[in-house]
Design brief:
With 385 residues, the chain is mainly α. It has helices spanning 2-20, 27-74, 78-103, 110-118, 123-193, 198-261, 266-306, 319-323, 325-366, 371-380.
C-alpha cells in the first residue's frame, strides 16, 4: 500500500493536470503522460514481484529444509529411530488420555468440589458420625413405635378389665337379686301354704354367697390388674418422653451435619465424597500425564536435534508421522505439492518481473527524462537497477 502511495505521488500531479488540461494538450504531451502511467504500472509490477519472489524463495527453502529433515529422520541410526518412535507412541497415548479426560463429563459440580476440598479432612469423620446418628435414629424410631404400640396394648387391656369389672358387677347384682327373690318366694310359700323350704332356701343362699364371693375376688383381681396397667402406661409414657428427647437431640445433630455438608443423607455425602476422590485422582493423573508428555516431547526434540534437523519443534505437531509410515508419505506428498506450487508461482512471478523490466527499459529508452524517477522508486525499495 505504501508503494502505491509513493509511486502514485510521483505521477499524481501529471495525471491531475492531464485530466484538467486534456483539451489544451497536444498529442505529444498526452502521449508522454500515457508513458508515465505505464512506467508507474510496470515499476509497481517489478517491486511487487521482487518482494513476492523473496517470500516465495524463503518458503521454498523452508519446504526444502522439511524434505531434508525427513531424510535425516529416515537415516537415523536404528537405535535412535526406535527410541524416537517409542517416544512418539507414548506421546500419542498420553494425548489420547488427555482428550478423554477433557471430554469426560464432570463427576461433581464445581460448588460441591470446592466444599469437599474445604472440608476434606473432616468428611471421613463426618460420614462415620452420620452413620452412627442415622443408625441411632432408626433405633429410636423403632423404640418410639414399640412404645406407642405398648401404650395401645395397655389401653386395650385396661378397657377389657374395665368391661370385665362392669360385667361382674352386673352379674353380682343379678345373682343377689335372684337369691333375694328366691328367699322371699320361699317365705311366702312357707307362711301361706306352710311348706317347709328351709333347706332349699339355705342351699340357694349358700350358692349365691359362693358365687358372689368368686365375683368379688374376680372384681378385685381386675381392679388390681387395672392398677398394674396404669403403672405400665405411666412407665411407657416416661420411657417415651426419654426416647423423644433422644430423638430431638439426634435430629438436631443430624440437621447440623446435613447443613454443614449440604446434604440430605449420609449416602448422598458418601456419593459426593467418592466422586470427589475420583476427580482428585483423575486430576493427579492428568498432571502426571502432562509431566510425562513434557518429558517425552523433550526427548524427541533432543533426538531430532542430535540428528541435525533444522526445525524440530514442528514435528511435535506431526507426531503421527513419526510412527505411521503412511502418514509420513502423506507429509511428503503434501510438501511435494506445496513445492511444485511454489515453483509455478516463482516462474509466473519471474516472467511478470522480466516482462515489466523489458517494458521499463523500453519506456526509459524513449523517455530518458524519466530515468531518475524510476531509479528513485527502485532504489527506495532496495532493488538494483
Amino acid at each position: 500500500m505504501g508503494f502505491w502511495k509513493r509511486v502514485g505521488s510521483l505521477f499524481k500531479r501529471s495525471k491531475r493536470e492531464s485530466n484538467k488540461e486534456l483539451e489544451s494538450m497536444d498529442y505529444g504531451e498526452q502521449q508522454s503522460l500515457a508513458e508515465e502511467s505505464e512506467l508507474s504500472h510496470h515499476l509497481t509490477q517489478i517491486v511487487d514481484s521482487t518482494y513476492e519472489m523473496e517470500d516465495l524463495k524463503r518458503e521454498y527453502e523452508l519446504v526444502t529444509s522439511y524434505f531434508s529433515d525427513i531424510q535425516k529422520i529416515e537415516q537415523m541410526e536404528p537405535g535412535y529411530l526406535r527410541k524416537l518412535e517409542d517416544d512418539a507412541r507414548k506421546i500419542l497415548m498420553l494425548e489420547e488420555n488427555r482428550k478423554q479426560y477433557q471430554h469426560t463429563p464432570k463427576r461433581i459440580s464445581p460448588e460441591r468440589y470446592k466444599l469437599m476440598m474445604r472440608l476434606e479432612s473432616e468428611v471421613p469423620q463426618g460420614i462415620q458420625r452420620l452413620r452412627e446418628l442415622e443408625d441411632m435414629r432408626g433405633k429410636i424410631k423403632r423404640d418410639l413405635e414399640y412404645l406407642e404400640g405398648e401404650k395401645g396394648a395397655i389401653k386395650y387391656e385396661e378397657e377389657e378389665l374395665q368391661t370385665r369389672q362392669a360385667t361382674m358387677r352386673n352379674v353380682a347384682i343379678v345373682v343377689g337379686l335372684l337369691a333375694l327373690l328366691s328367699v322371699l318366694i320361699f317365705l311366702f310359700l312357707n307362711v301361706q301354704y306352710e311348706v317347709d323350704l328351709t333347706a332349699a332356701g339355705a342351699g340357694i343362699a349358700i350358692v349365691a354367697v359362693i358365687v358372689e364371693f368368686f365375683l368379688f375376688l374376680g372384681y378385685n383381681r381386675a381392679n388390681y390388674d387395672r392398677k398394674v396397667c396404669f403403672q405400665k402406661h405411666n412407665r411407657a409414657i416416661q420411657l417415651q418422653n426419654k426416647v423423644k428427647i433422644k430423638w430431638l437431640n439426634n435430629t438436631n445433630n443430624l440437621d447440623f451435619l446435613y447443613a454443614k455438608y449440604e446434604v440430605n443423607s449420609r449416602k448422598e455425602l458418601e456419593y459426593d465424597w467418592e466422586q470427589y476422590r475420583l476427580t482428585v485422582e483423575e486430576e493427579e493423573q492428568y498432571q502426571k500425564n502432562t509431566g510425562d508428555l513434557r518429558v517425552y516431547q523433550e526427548e524427541i526434540v533432543m533426538n531430532l536435534k542430535r540428528a541435525g534437523l533444522r526445525d524440530v519443534e514442528i514435528w511435535l505437531q506431526q507426531i503421527v508421522a513419526l510412527v505411521d509410515k503412511r502418514e509420513m508419505v502423506e507429509v511428503k506428498h503434501s510438501l511435494n505439492v506445496r513445492r511444485q506450487k511454489l515453483r509455478d508461482r516463482m516462474k509466473v512471478n519471474e516472467e511478470t518481473r522480466q516482462n515489466s523490466l523489458v517494458c521499463v527499459k523500453g519506456i526509459l529508452t524513449e523517455h530518458p527524462e524519466l530515468k531518475e524517477q524510476a531509479k528513485e522508486v527502485l532504489t527506495s525499495y532496495h532493488i538494483a537497477v
